[in-house]
Specification:
Number of strands: 3
Order of helices and strands: EEEH
Bound molecules: zinc ion
Number of helices: 1
Distance between the termini: 12 Å
Helix content: 10-25%
Shape: globular
Strand order of the largest sheet: 2-1-3
Length: about 60
């Protein structure tokens, strides 16, 4: 699996982490994202977000 890291804290995401998807399709931890950052497009668990958007399907676990 291709890993991606939070651009703020640099930790790799785990599937259970609560994350924010911004309008540039950047994923950040919900706790790292601040109101100074880009507009929010969606939020949820990391697994929920990568399943929902085709652009992230290459990092999904293989079925
Ligand atoms: Zn973070």
């Amino acid at each position: 699996m291709k890993k991606i890291a939070c651009p703020y804290c640099r930790d790799f995401f785990e599937y259970s982490h609560n994350v924010i998807l911004d309008i540039n399709y950047t994923i950040s931890h919900e706790i790292c994202f601040t109101e100074l950052n880009f507009e929010i497009k969606d939020k949820g668990s990391f697994l929920n977000i990568i399943e929902k958007y085709n652009v992230f399907h290459e990092i999904l676990p293989k079925a």
